[in-house]
Amino acid sequence: MKLIFGYLAGLLFGLGLAIGGMTDPHRVQGFLDVFGNWDPTLIFVMGGAVITTFIGYRLVFRRQGPLFAETFIVPARRDIDTRLLIGAAVFGIGWGLSGYCPGPAFASISGITWPLVALLLSMVVGWWLARRV
Predict the structure, then answer these.
(1) So what's the pLDDT on residue 35?
(2) Taking each helix axis from N to C terminus, what angle separates 114-132 and 82-98, rounded to the nearest 10 degrees?
(3) 29 vs 125: CA distance, rounded Å
(4) CB 29 within 8 A of CB 96
């Protein structure tokens, strides 16, 4: 059941990204173009995600435990280190240049393009390197 609900959650997430227009890299780049042809769509998608997460976490943590696991898995680290800062900078640069972050990139696989292939390969290499460092 855990696997089935994981796939359903991923499908819902991808569908939300597609409906919100986040699988279009030009929309994301338009959001980052604050001095040009600015597109505020991303703010509304992010706002909807933040509100949903805020409410969802409060509802979930009222439970004694998760439905399909022994315990909740909550990140314990709260420090800001060099790896985090470098990773965030690389992520931001890649996101700004390509117009994709990982979720929309994978949700866009059905409309594969060469820039998307380059981004996906770069993400895989980045994940591999991050595990080695």
Answers:
(1) 92
(2) 170
(3) 23
(4) yes
Please tell me the predicted confidence (pLDDT) of residue 87.
Answer: 86
pLDDT at 118 over 80: yes
Q: Token pair for residue 121? A: 């390969």
Tokens representing 115 are 């820039």
C-alpha closest to that of 45 among 103, 85, 5: 103
List pLDDT tens digits, range 70-100. 888 888 889 999 988 988 898 888 888 888 8
Domain boundary assignment for the chain:
2-132
Residue labelled with tokens 């770069």: 122
DSSP assignments along 29-73, one per residue = HHHH-TTSS--THHHHHHHHHHHHHHHHHHHHTTSSS-SSSSS--
Q: Which residues contact 60 (CB under 8 A, 6 or more apart)?
A: 66, 72
- The H-assigned helical ranges of 61-110 are 82-98, 102-107
> With contact defined as beta carbons under 8 Å apart, do 107 and 14 qualify?
yes
